[in-house]
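Running this now, will post back.
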Amino acid sequence: MRIVFHCMTSRLATRIALLALTALVAALSASGPPLAAQARQPARRNVIFILSDDHRYDFMSFMPGAPAFLQTPALDRMAQRGAHVQNAFVTTALCSPSRASILTGQYAHRHGIVDNVTRIRPGTTFFPQLLQKAGYRTAYIGKWHMGEVDARPQPGFDHWVSFRGQGTYRDPMLNINGRQQRTPGYTTDLLTDQALAWLKQQTAGGQKQPFFMVLAHKAVHAEFEPAPRHKGRYATAPIPYPESMADTEANYRGKPRWVKEQRNSFHGVDFMYHGAMQFDPFYRAYAETLLALDDSVGRVLDFVDSSGLSSSTLVIYMSDNGFMLGEHGLIDKRHAYEESMRVPMLAYAPGLIPAGSKVTQVVRNIDIAPTMLELAGAAPAANMDGRSVLAALRGDPVKWEGEMVYEYYWEYAFPQTPTTLALRGDRYKFIYYPGVWDVQELYDLERDPKERDNLIGAPEHQERVRTMRTRLWDLLEASGAMSTPLRRGTGQQNQRKGGG
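Update: finished.
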């Protein structure tokens, strides 16, 4: 009897233990993903997103193609201690559309901000609104520039510091949480001061709530104005003129007519800003204006490291578009050429991103929003066109096609650049100009990275041209681009310098 009772007791204990284990597993399942899956998920990090304006992808001193005189120690440091995203691009090389694409994860034809003056559509969702719902504190400090109407606070941000339109390089009128305040000083430095002040508040008193901050600079937008401490730094530096800048038959053989014609226009090297500027001082001022921007990045990195935030914070640096400095006789951006649509991108997050790593996958501005949401453990909006690239930033073995769509819509104020659509693949780029009776373009980026040899008429590439043209229109149609947004003409042409 004692043996039978002992066996019954053992079976009862085992059954109770199994029931308890089952209940524990059920509770864990109800409260979140399995433990193994949780272990694979990155911890929610703070994010500091530094956004510059018109910064070329190759104007960092660690880049092989950078001018020999250029110095960007903070950006170099960020690349050494974090990741350099070697193939970062914008889907529209223009300030307002690109910034809207960053904040919505959408193409310009979807969010509708197709130029620098179009107002934001009612109901537009910026991803920081989703971060707020996920428990993040948020701040926007710097250039907003969507609609050029005012500088009032926008949805998704708990703290707001901005200015109207392009702003100024000196003594800006800042809107600080709804109150206008004239602030003396150099704008790049002032915005950095504002950002550091807010960051210090987030680390005071043992705060544990994660935060997301955008530091959006005006620099290095034209008209370039270096900080007083940097003015003249490169006054005697020799300028490495691009080979395609010369007005020669070889440079324009096979190029669209609009490219050569723009040479003698507002955004061309022969008549820059209606003759108000000369190329050499323009080039040097661009490089000198970049110096304060680099200082800003250094100050932010210093604070992150000294405050103990580096183990819990991701810092990303990116530009809203690139900039032409003489290539094909052009200045400014808007075009589908590499110098215009390609941007610098760096990511620093010790413990998350391997130091000195290089991300070779294509990363687009529309990929920022879903990446930030994945980092926060929040689901992306259903209407986002981008994809998360967090795995690539972490150095995980991921692979996807490097195919991307580019779009730019003709502006009444700057009619010298036509509407431009492009499909950029891993090796070839196809450029199409709807509404203009002109030459299309095809480039072999591996053999011809400077895009000087247009292959559009080469017999051996005709099948590729047909395939890429069809693919371009298929992708545009699939993402809702067949109803092109329009706005009223203003009657004003080329009245502003810089052009957004």
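The domain at 42-247+276-400 is CATH 3.40.720.10 (Alkaline Phosphatase, subunit A). More later if anyone needs it.
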